[in-house]
Design goal:
Helices cover about 45% and strands about 20% of the residues. With about 250 residues, the chain is an alpha/beta fold. It has a domain of about 120 residues: Glutaredoxin, CATH 3.40.30. It is globular, with a radius of gyration of 53 Å. Keywords: Antioxidant, Disulfide bond, Oxidoreductase, Peroxidase, Redox-active center.
Length: about 250
C-alpha cells in the first residue's frame, strides 16, 4: 500500500468527521435535555418563621418565669406582715399627744428643765406647795406678753395663797431672759425646747390658723395642789382675765 493510500485510510472521512464532531454536540444537547427533564434536586426548605402556635408556645415558655415571679410577688404582697414589720410600722406611727388624758386628781408629771437666769427647776422643788404652770406659745408675742404681765402683777397674791407661778414655752433660755428683761417679769420662765414638759402636760398638739393645721403649743394652764395632784386644767386659754380666774381657783383649794 502506498503512503498516499495509507494516509487516506488513516484519516477519517469528512462524513465520519462530521459525525464524530456532531456526537459531542449531540451529547451536550442530550445532557442538557436530561438535566432539564430530570427533576430538580429538592431544595432544602428555608427555615420558615415559626407558626403562630409555635410563637405563642415560645412566648408562653419564655414568659412563664416572669409570670411566675409576678405571681410570686403578688402572693408575697398578700402574705401576712411579719411581726417585725408590724412593730416597726407601729413605732413610726405618730404618738398621741401625751398629757391630753390628764384629769383632775392624777399625779402631776415630773419635770426638770433649765430656766431664765441659769440653773434648772423641777417638780420636786415645789413639793408641799401649790403650783401654777402656764404654757404659752412664744415669748414676746402680744398675747403671751399680756398673760405673763398679768401673772407678774398678781405674783404677790399667788404667794399669799401659798402658790408659785411658772411660765413655760419652747423658747431658748436666752429668749426667755430677753422676754423677762424687756417686760420686767418676776415669774420664773422655763425653756422646754424638746417639748418634754409641753407634751407631758398636754400643751403640745394640733392647732389650726387661717385654714392651716399644724403642731404647736396650745395655750394651757395647769394648777397642781400641795399634794402633787392636778387640781384643775385650762386649755385653749383666753388671756383676758385668765390670771385672775386662776388665782380664784388657787384660793379655793
Amino acid at each position: 500500500m502506498s503512503k498516499k493510500t495509507r494516509k487516506k485510510s488513516s484519516m477519517p472521512s469528512s462524513k465520519n468527521r462530521k459525525t464524530s464532531a456532531a456526537k459531542p454536540a449531540a451529547a451536550k444537547t442530550a445532557s442538557k435535555t436530561a438535566r432539564r427533564a430530570a427533576p430538580a434536586p429538592a431544595k432544602k426548605p428555608a427555615a420558615k418563621p415559626a407558626s403562630k402556635a409555635a410563637k405563642t408556645a415560645t412566648k408562653a415558655a419564655a414568659g412563664k418565669p416572669a409570670k411566675k415571679a409576678k405571681t410570686a410577688s403578688a402572693k408575697a404582697s398578700h402574705k401576712p406582715t411579719s411581726k417585725q414589720l408590724i412593730k416597726s410600722k407601729l413605732s413610726e406611727t405618730p404618738k398621741p399627744v401625751a398629757g391630753t388624758g390628764l384629769v383632775e386628781g392624777a399625779m402631776a408629771p415630773a419635770f426638770n428643765l433649765p430656766r431664765d437666769g441659769g440653773g434648772s427647776v423641777s417638780l420636786a422643788d415645789y413639793a408641799g406647795k401649790k403650783l401654777v404652770l402656764f404654757f404659752y406659745p412664744r415669748a414676746d408675742t402680744p398675747g403671751c406678753t399680756r398673760e405673763a404681765i398679768d401673772f407678774t402683777r398678781l405674783s404677790s397674791a399667788f404667794s399669799d395663797a401659798g402658790a408659785v407661778v411658772l411660765g413655760i414655752s419652747a423658747d431658748t433660755v436666752k429668749a426667755q431672759e430677753s422676754f423677762r428683761n424687756k417686760h420686767q417679769l418676776s415669774v420664773p420662765l422655763i425653756s422646754d425646747e424638746q417639748h418634754e414638759m409641753l407634751e407631758a402636760y398636754g400643751a403640745w398638739g394640733e392647732k389650726s390658723m387661717y385654714g392651716r393645721t399644724f403642731m404647736g403649743i396650745i395655750r394651757t394652764t395647769v394648777l397642781i395642789g400641795s399634794d402633787g395632784r392636778i387640781a384643775k386644767t385650762w386649755r385653749n386659754v383666753r388671756v383676758d382675765g385668765h390670771a385672775d380666774e386662776v388665782l380664784a381657783a388657787v384660793r379655793g383649794i
